[in-house]
Each structure stands twice: as C-alpha cells, then as structure tokens.
Design a protein that fits this description.
single chain, alpha/beta, Arginase, Chain A, 9-stranded mixed β-sheet, 14 helices, 9 strands, 11% strand, globular, disordered N terminus, binds zinc ion
Length: 360
C-alpha cells in the first residue's frame, strides 16, 4: 500500500532535487544557447524529468482568505463559474499518489518575469490585469474572467511552465506542463478564462533566441483557439492545426491554415478519423517543434463542449499525436488546456495525457 502524499510532503520532497541536463537528443550540445542552459538550470529536476509543475498550480491561496471570494462573491456576481479551481491540485495529487510522477519530475522554481510578458502582451493590458488582481472588488466586474492575486501568480507560473516544457522538449523529445494552453488570450485582452498566452509567448521567446523557426500548434481543445490565431495570422513560420466544435464559444472565429470544424455529437470514430489528416500537415510543413493543446473538453461529459468522445477515445487521440511527432523526431511541448467535466473525470483524462507523454 502506498503512503498518501500530501501537498506539504510534495513541496518538501521536490525541494531536495538537483539539476541534471541530459545529453541532448534533439539539439546537439554545441547548439545549446547560453539562455537554454541557463533556463534549464533554474529548475529542480532529474535528467529524466519531462513534467513541469509549480506550487501555485495547486492554488494554495484558495484554502485561505481568498476562498470566500471564489465560493461566495463570484457565484453571486456572475453565477457559478465553469472552471474548477481545484483541478490542478487534484491532478498533481493523483499523479503523485499513483506514482506516475515522482520526485524526479520537475518543480518550476520561478514565475515568469512580468517584464518578459511585455514581449507578447501590451503594456496597457498588463497594467489592467495587475490592477484587477490587486483589487478583488474590481475583478468581479470582469464577468467571466475574474482574477485575484492568487490567480495572477498561477497564470504567471503556468505561462513560464509552458516555456520551460518547450525547452525540455527540445532536449528530450517531449515534455508536459501540468497546466497551460491559454489559447483564448489576445495580446491586449483576456478571454475565455485565459489571461496570458503561454504558447504564443513560448514561441516568440524561443524564436528570439534562434532556438526554433518553424512551429506547429496542434490545438485539440474543443474550443477554437482564437487568441493563438490572432498572434500568428501573418506568420508563415507558425502553422496552426485547430480541430474544434463550430457552434460554441468563441462566436467569432479567426481562420487558421488547417481547421477542422466539428458538429455537436461527434464520436470517437469520426473524431479520430478526421484527426488522421494531421499526419499530412506535419509531413508537408516539417516543423522544428510542435505545441500540443490536449484539451479535455471534447469529452462526452464536458459541461461546455458538445462532443461525445470517451476517455478511451481521448487517450487514443493523445497517443496518436505524440507518436506522430516521436516517429518524426519532432520535439513537442504539451499543455492541458480546457476541461469542464466533473473533477474525477477531468483528472482521469488529464492523467491519460500525462501517461501518453511519458510513454513516448
Ligand atoms: Zn476549451
């Protein structure tokens, strides 16, 4: 019988780790930029670590004073919010208890430097988010997208997490951020529960360092990634493959190079058959690396999506995507994106994604 791990055990356990950068499989050692080495040395990790996590993903502030705001004031003001704020804590607890991630996995040591956010968000917008975060009363007028100091730190950590997962993927083939995938965030405004665009930010930062040029985004969240599309509309070196349900949020779609629009009720068989076209996209575009948004919301029990995929179908989806990149030696960074089913189902689906990453 396993000894249950509490969050406190995990934090202290992870604290003892040291960094080891493995021999590069995807970049030769000579190709490592000083910035890349520096970033990897900011992590606590073993040489095998491919999962990125930060203590603020567990929303530790939630059990303190700010819980009142989210359990009482937010529902009174905007109605019950579809995001289950406990999803990331429940997931990391489950992964540790099941032994799927261990102390050899990564703890991210830092939040993104707010100054770096300025590379992919406008100063005016960043000031607005900070002001909302510091004043919960103001935040409540922000309708679907309330924020407070705790959530602000969560978004800063999760945004850095996707960038670090991308760096690890370049070294080791694939890596996963136990959060991220905020594909509705635009340069100058938040949307759809997304404040900072982690994937766009990671691509912009990596490109600035000349680490990658051609990047493919595979977005299999049930919602169209309008924020991602807005960032790369004019950029021929970033290709987006977006498979989403057409009649749900967001109402205004932004065209991307490869989009597959699904109708409500799509099942495993139809979905997986349509997904096969990704193979041709990868072969013709030949990206240096990929970002995969493995949204859990195409699930049949999702409260915001209308597709009928089973957990088994979603696991097949993840295995297909990850093997596709593995076979072609293309590094892929994975984020969890959306998910609005019951907590137990959501954790099950996300756990399948983690297992799929670690199996490839
Ligand atoms: Zn979604």
């Amino acid at each position: 019988m396993r000894t249950p791990l509490t969050r406190r055990n995990v934090l202290f356990g992870l604290g003892a780790l040291t960094v080891g950068v493995a021999a590069a499989k995807y970049l030769s050692k000579d190709a490592l930029s000083p910035l890349l080495s520096q970033d990897l040395h900011s992590l606590k990790s073993s040489s095998n670590a491919r999962v990125v996590w930060h203590p603020s993903y567990g929303m530790p502030w939630y059990s303190n004073g700010e819980k009142f705001i989210f359990e009482m004031l937010v529902p009174m003001t905007i109605g019950a919010h579809p995001v289950n704020i406990l999803r990331y804590a429940a997931l990391s607890d489950e992964l540790l208890q099941q032994g799927i991630i261990t102390k050899q996995d990564v703890e991210l040591l830092r939040l993104i430097d707010p100054a770096i956010l300025g590379e992919f968000h406008t100063p005016k917008y960043l000031q607005k988010v900070k002001r909302l975060a510091e004043n919960p009363a103001l935040s409540l007028i922000n309708r679907d997208n309330p924020i407070n100091k705790g959530l602000y730190d969560f978004y800063l950590a999760a945004t850095e997490g996707t960038y670090i997962a991308a760096k690890i993927a370049l070294e080791k083939g694939n890596a996963l951020n136990l959060s991220g995938g905020f594909h509705h965030a635009f340069k100058d405004h938040e949307a759809g529960f997304c404040f900072f665009n982690d994937v766009a930010g990671a691509i912009i930062r990596l490109r600035k360092q000349n680490v990658v040029n051609k990047v493919l985004i595979v977005d299999l969240d049930v919602h169209h990634g309008n924020g991602n599309a807005s960032y790369f509309q004019e950029d021929t070196n970033t290709c987006i493959f977006d498979m989403y349900q057409g009649d749900i949020y967001p109402s205004e779609k932004i065209p991307v190079e490869h989009q597959i629009v699904l109708e409500a009720g799509e099942t495993d068989r139809g979905y997986l058959s349509k997904l096969e076209s990704l193979s041709d996209v990868v072969s013709s575009f030949r990206p240096d690396m990929a970002f995969y948004l493995a949204g859990a919301d195409p699930f049949e029990g999702d409260k915001l999506g209308g597709l009928d995929l089973t957990k088994k179908g979603l696991r097949c989806r993840d295995d297909f995507v990850l093997r596709l990149f593995q076979e072609r030696n293309i590094p892929v960074a994975v984020t969890l994106a959306g998910g609005y089913s019951d907590l137990e189902d959501l954790v099950d689906i996300n756990r399948g994604t983690v297992e799929s990453v670690l199996a490839t």
